[in-house]
Amino acid sequence: MAQAFFGGVHPHDMKAATNEKAIEQLAPPAEVVIPMSMHFGAPCTPLVKAGDLVKVGQKIGEFRGLGAPIHASVSGKVKAVEPRPYSMGGNMMSVVIENDFQNEVSEEVKAPADPDALTVEEMIEIVKNAGIVGMGGATFPTHVKISGGIGKVDHVLINGAECEPYITGDHRAMLERPEEIIGGCKYLAKMFGVDKVIIGVEDNKQNGIDMMNKVIAEQNAPVVVEPLHCRYPQGGEKQLCQAITGKQVPPGGLPSNIGCAVFNINTTICIYRAITTGMPVVNKVVTVSGSGIVEPKNVECPIGTPVSALLDACGGVKDGTYKLVAGGPMMGMAQYTADVPVAKGTGAILAFCEKEEQTVEHPQCIRCGKCVAACPVHLEPLFMYQYAAKGMVDELNEAHIMDCMECGACAYACPARMHLTQMFKTGKQLVKDKMAADKAAAEAKKAAAEKKEA
Amino acid sequence: MTDYKNLKLIATSNPHIRSSETTRSIMLDVIIAMIPALIWAVISFGMKALTLTAASVLSCMFWEWLYRKLMKKPQSVGDLSAVVTGMLLAFVSPVTTPHWTVIIGAFFAIVVCKQMYGGIGKNFLNPALVGRAALVASYAGIMTTWIAPGEKAPLLGGSADVVTAATPLAYMKSGDMETLTATYSVMDMFLGKVGGSLGEVSALLLLIGGVYLIWRKVINWQTPVAYIATVAVLTLLFPKAGSGVEWMLYSLFGGGLFLGAFFMATDYATSPVGKKGQLIYGIGCGLFTVFIRYFGSYNEGVCYSILVMNCCTALIDKYAKPTRFGVVKSDKKEAAAK
């Protein structure tokens, strides 16, 4: 068993509702809404306009700077290019496609003649053109991670921790698509020039571990499965590096600083598909679960499928459903409408109608220190809360609030039900605002000084 | 199909689930952990132990309720922290203490020490110990009268008509190990067949309660273990009389060390939040306990040692910070070298 990371919590994993249900294909939706921001970085520029005909896999959004292109997930006619609600909050420029149910594949999608003969550069180019991003939810562009890591990385890790409760998409993929995972691992090993890829999997997915070990043995693949003790947030990139290699990513750094690169199970499958078939990211496996869902399922749907269509496919929601979450219960975003579409990073849709949300009217910190013990990045949430509540920006900086990854472990553990994570989002914004103001002031001073000299 | 437009959705920050542990459940665990010691107090001292504890608990709850009511603050009696304070205040008082005395102690504990600083989590001194300290300063006679083991305290009335006896700590203060070993065996001390405050006598039952709290993850082992180990090492190395081991055992099981180490020093509001800090704090408590027992004018040092360390908690929290994630030892050395 691998080494552990510090801190963390043990929420009930709630995976029994869906972990034995095979991935179902969703009946094609009549309309998809594809937001132009499904990655870490600036939004894409739409390449189509209303009235255009598009086919599956056709590029409809081009990125600038850091990002990844976006492709049509169904064939049909572009109905509109306009801002629509999306799962990250607010509205985002989106391409709305009316499905013609022909499922015609674009000419742009071409399988390489011999995938195994591709050079590293060619493979990275394919990954880039396929619009692959971190499919676990972080949505960092995968081609940037690969090209930035080559030469520095000696540990290629595949993230199969799936530590968020309820979500079982990766677990099902391990059982149903192990060849694609292992195939993706082989290409990653080739790209990074390493002789071994390590898949970290929490031990609540023992049958998934067994299945992958079977395929690894059959193919004699350069892949090792590392079982991990269950603990949230093991699937955090830095925590996974720590759990498997024992090394810590330096503050503000990336896993490549300690020679690691981490890819999600789903990302690995996308890489395999792109390299072998040329098909970009157009589908996503979503776990639809939670107390408010009539019939929880794992559903594969085209990107851009409205959440309401997924809910319909799972029997709808129960009366009294008060919360709809895109993503896991620990880090997901609560939605105010079921009209938002499934994006590349949407691993789950959860509906809650029971007492998951436990708030108290007047939360009062009792200084129990459970947040300190739970914080995987060694912060002291109770003090940060006080600083943020009082707007003490310098103290927030000294408390390293920017190291906080908003994993929610502290707020989960808090017996007094303090709104810790929420306050840290506010606090981080305070720090960013102050930094921007300081920078502007310094520039103004410099400009004034230059003017004086002249 | 469901019309999703009619859903009344709330959009709050993550996380969307919470652990089942609440302030109330934690306080309930502490209460459960103190029950064995309370039962033993009733068995050895009589029903007065129960009525005194009840008076203390009820008056703590009453003072808390009254203060919050008068100050128009949200009511907080339901979190059960006042019950814990009440039980602890009774535990650190002699069983012969009149009921009215603990009501006054409860006032100091709840109103002066806790609520005036903002209520739960905001007080920097342990409420029960402040209550005791106030009573010792005001009613020294009442607070230092100990009935002999086997005697039952009368339900009402003071300590005038009971047989009193010196506590083990009194013998130890004077270095009279011969009388001490003749009066109480080590096993008597461990099981609680000795004189002393209501809830402090049985080291065994307090240990069981403490282990329960550690098992339930209500407290960390750092504070009590550091505290008890410090006292053990100091008394083993520097016995005032008799052999080191014997002196150490009497020092550990005599007085309120186990009650203090497991139930008082671990008080959330008044002890450091991190494990590193808790170790330092526990060691500090141990040092002061031994210093007061050896060199102070009181027989017992647990109460004041914890109060002194309470005052150091903010300082310990400031310096015993966790190491920043990603900063490994070699980095620190490099930074220092630069």
Structure description:
The complex is a heterodimer of chains A (454) and B (338). By secondary structure, chain A is α/β, with parallel strands linked by helices. Chain A folds into three domains: 15-277, Rossmann fold; 285-352, Roll (Ubiquitin-like (UB roll)), CATH 3.10.20; 370-453, no CATH class. Helix content of chain A is 31%, strand content 19%. Chain A is built from 13 helices and 17 strands. In chain A, a hairpin with a 7-residue loop joins strand 13 (283-289) and strand 14. Chain B has 338 residues and is mainly alpha-helical. Chain B has a single domain (23-319), classed as Ammonium transporter fold, CATH 1.10.3430. Chain B has 16 helices and no strands. Chain B has helices spanning 23-45, 48-70, 81-91, 99-114, 127-138, 140-143, 168-174, 177-183, 186-191, 203-215, 222-237, 244-253, 257-264, 275-295, 302-319, 329-337. The longest helix of chain B has 23 residues, at 23-45. The model of chain B has no long low-confidence stretch (mean pLDDT 91). At the A-B interface, helix 8, strand 15, strand 16, helix 9 and helix 12 of A face helix 1 of B.
Largest sheet descriptor of chain A? 6 strands, mixed
Fourth-level CATH superfamily of the largest domain in chain A: NADH-ubiquinone oxidoreductase 51kDa subunit
| Element pattern of chain B in H and E | HHHHHHHHHHHHHHHH
- SSE order of chain A, one letter for each helix or strand: EEEEEEEEHHEHHEHEHEHEEHEEEHHHHH
As for the CATH topology of the largest domain in chain A, it is Rossmann fold
- Mean pLDDT across all residues of chain A, rounded? 93
Specify the CATH architecture of the largest domain in chain A.
3-Layer(aba) Sandwich
Going by helix content, strand content and strand pairing, the class of chain A is alpha/beta
Largest interface: A-B, 73 and 44 residues
Q: Write down the overall mean pLDDT of chain B.
A: 91
CATH topology of chain B, anyone? Answer: Ammonium transporter fold
Helix residue percentage of chain A: 25-40%
In DSSP terms (H or I, runs of 4 or more residues), the helix count of chain A works out at 13
Secondary-structure-based class of chain B equals mainly alpha
Count of spatially separate domains of chain B: 1
